[in-house]
């Protein structure tokens, strides 16, 4: 079977393990992962308290694991040039930049006070440290690093002294310069092991994570134009607090996988519609499934023109080294409702204001006509009326847009209802068929019971016959013994006569 066909035969919105040929890499968690040219790259991680330094590659076409043998860049001036192996690292981030994999932060032996950016060149198989400048963040682990164009947004984490962070830094990949962003309004509480995503090029979303005593399920939003934090109202399914989860975006859908609270893992795969801020549960796995783990990774990849999710590793009482794949169901992308222009975003408020205005001033079109027929005083009444008319027209236009959206949503729901009705009809037919089979099986069981009863009666009669046969055999045996005795006595008598006669003859 072709690889593309194997992927396309997967059920929508369901995780499935990928069959692996040959050896698997060591199980781990808190590693970093990304996909390049249909190959899944896994770097570092932790297992049994020990950090790992290997680089593993899983070919998504051959289903075979291999290990990269890296060498230090001999022309580099950094201290890593003297190292023969890539530093063992855990709790870091990895971002693809050209033909290089950039590894940001994390905990490794001999970490400096400042955050280190390392690289792996997947063409030359060389590694090294990238020299950065500017307002370099402190060394940390469990932070989030989100790529936006040619910039990386770094948020939160825990420094080497276990101090929790909630500041925002930006790394310009063009010049490798760090800047610290000054934000306004209330930021998220300091945290680590959270998830982050970007909506477009403007909004940074932060979800979940934990402090040293609290696990979070809150969602925060940072407007990158105004640098203003907010905590928007969320709709949809209730999500449980978690840390160590992984997230990946496909269009305006943000998929959240795994995580936990140190006592149990989170078995549900969540989806946040980022334009509407609505949570929904995509699928649920078993409680002890590798996908219900902390410290796992999730990536997306394009295979045969279709996007898939890939998950690897994690820990939930047991370390995992399995690769899972999910084929997301295509989802409609309606026009955003909360991240629109200021006029559209304030449509509801405008409608409310218009209603209050009409109630207080008793403004209707007949009054407008009467007023228009009167000469204006200093031009103000006419000007005010014109403004009010334009306001009402704008509100009408916005209401029509909202009605169009509602109709589109109703059409979509109607299609889903029709699909559910068709499924219900098919299930009803299948149920009737199964009920018919049950009736036939019951009739067959009744017939078998009747035959069994007849056989039992026959066996009882055969037992009686057997007893009669045994009695006849005993009678026959007794008769045979009597006949044998009689025959033996006759032979003995005859023999004695012949012996006597013979003796006399001598």
Low-confidence sequence ranges: 334-381, 494-506
* Cα gyration radius (Å): 41 Å
How many domains?
A: 2
CATH class of the largest domain: Mainly Beta
Briefly note the CATH topology name of the largest domain.
Neuraminidase
In short:
This protein has 5 helices and 32 strands. With 506 residues, the chain is α+β, with helices and mostly antiparallel strands.
Provide the fold topology.
Blueprint (H helix, E strand, L loop, with lengths): L2 H6 L6 E3 L14 E5 L2 E5 L2 E2 L2 E2 L3 E5 L4 E4 L3 E2 L16 E2 L2 E5 L2 E5 L2 E2 L8 E5 L4 E5 L2 E2 L5 E2 L2 E5 L2 E9 L4 E9 L4 E5 L13 E5 L3 E5 L11 E5 L4 E3 L4 E2 L9 E5 L2 E5 L10 E6 L4 E7 L12 E7 L2 E7 L10 E4 L15 H4 L1 H15 L3 H9 L6 H126 L1
Helix pairs in contact: 3-5
Task: Walk me through this protein's architecture.
- The protein has helices spanning 3-8, 342-345, 347-361, 365-373, 380-505; strands at 15-17, 32-36, 39-43, 46-47, 50-51, 55-59, 64-67, 71-72, 89-90, 93-97, 100-104, 107-108, 117-121, 126-130, 133-134, 140-141, 144-148, 151-159, 164-172, 177-181, 195-199, 203-207, 219-223, 228-230, 235-236, 246-250, 253-257, 268-273, 278-284, 297-303, 306-312, 323-326.
- It has 506 residues and is an alpha+beta fold.
- The protein has two domains: 3-326, Kelch-type beta propeller (Neuraminidase), CATH 2.120.10; 342-444.
- Strands 15, 16, 17, 18, 19 and 20 form a six-stranded mixed β-sheet that branches. It has a five-stranded mixed β-sheet with strand order 8-14-13-11-10, with no helix packed on it. Strands 25-29-28-27-26 form a five-stranded mixed β-sheet, with no helix packed on it.
- Strand 13 (117-121) and strand 14 form a beta hairpin.
């Amino acid at each position: 079977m072709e690889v593309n066909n194997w992927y396309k035969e997967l059920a929508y919105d369901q995780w499935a393990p990928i069959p692996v040929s040959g050896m698997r890499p060591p199980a781990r968690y808190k590693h970093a992962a990304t996909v390049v040219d249909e190959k899944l790259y896994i770097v570092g991680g932790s297992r049994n308290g020990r950090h790992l330094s290997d680089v593993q590659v899983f070919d998504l076409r051959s289903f075979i694991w291999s290990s990269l043998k890296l060498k230090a860049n001999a022309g580099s001036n950094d201290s890593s040039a003297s190292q023969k192996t890539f530093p063992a690292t855990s709790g870091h981030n990895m971002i693809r930049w050209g033909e290089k994999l950039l590894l940001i932060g994390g905990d490794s032996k001999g970490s400096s006070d400042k955050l280190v950016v390392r690289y792996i060149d997947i063409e030359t198989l060389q590694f090294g440290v990238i020299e950065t400048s500017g307002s370099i963040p402190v060394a940390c682990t469990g932070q989030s690093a989100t790529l936006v164009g040619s910039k990386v947004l770094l948020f939160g984490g825990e420094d080497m002294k276990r101090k929790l962070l909630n500041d925002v830094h930006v790394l310009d990949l063009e010049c490798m310069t760090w800047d610290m962003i000054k934000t306004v309004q209330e930021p998220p509480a300091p945290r680590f092991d959270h998830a982050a995503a970007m909506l477009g090029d403007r909004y940074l979303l932060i979800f979940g994570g934990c402090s040293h005593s609290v696990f979070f399920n809150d969602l925060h939003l940072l407007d990158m134009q105004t640098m203003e934090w907010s905590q928007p109202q969320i709709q949809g399914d209730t999500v449980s607090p978690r840390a160590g989860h992984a997230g990946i975006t496909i269009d305006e859908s943000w998929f959240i996988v795994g995580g936990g609270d140190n006592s149990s893992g989170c078995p549900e795969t969540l989806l946040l519609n980022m334009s509407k801020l609505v949570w929904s549960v995509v699928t649920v796995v078993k409680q002890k499934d590798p996908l219900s783990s902390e410290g796992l990774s999730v990536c997306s990849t394009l295979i045969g023109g279709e996007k898939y999710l890939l998950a690897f590793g994690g820990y939930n009482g047991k370390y995992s080294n399995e690769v899972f794949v999910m084929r997301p169901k295509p989802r409609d992308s309606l026009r955003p409702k909360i991240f629109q222009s200021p006029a559209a975003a304030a449509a509801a408020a405008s409608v409310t204001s218009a209603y209050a205005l009409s109630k207080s001033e008793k403004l209707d079109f007949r009054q407008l006509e009467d007023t228009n027929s009167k000469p204006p005083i200093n031009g103000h009444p006419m000007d005010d009326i014109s403004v009010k008319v334009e306001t009402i027209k704008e509100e009408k236009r916005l209401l029509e847009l909202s009605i169009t959206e509602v109709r589109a949503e109703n059409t979509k729901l109607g299609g889903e209802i029709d699909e559910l009705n068709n499924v219900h009809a098919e299930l009803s037919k299948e149920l009737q068929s199964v009920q018919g089979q049950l009736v036939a099986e019951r009739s067959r069981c009744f017939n078998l019971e009747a035959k069994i009863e007849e056989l039992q009666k026959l066996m009882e009669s055969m037992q009686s016959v057997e007893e009669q046969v045994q009695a006849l055999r005993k009678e026959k045996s007794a008769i045979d013994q009597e006949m044998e005795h009689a025959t033996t006595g006759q032979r003995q008598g005859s023999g004695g006569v012949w012996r006597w006669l013979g003796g006399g003859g001598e």
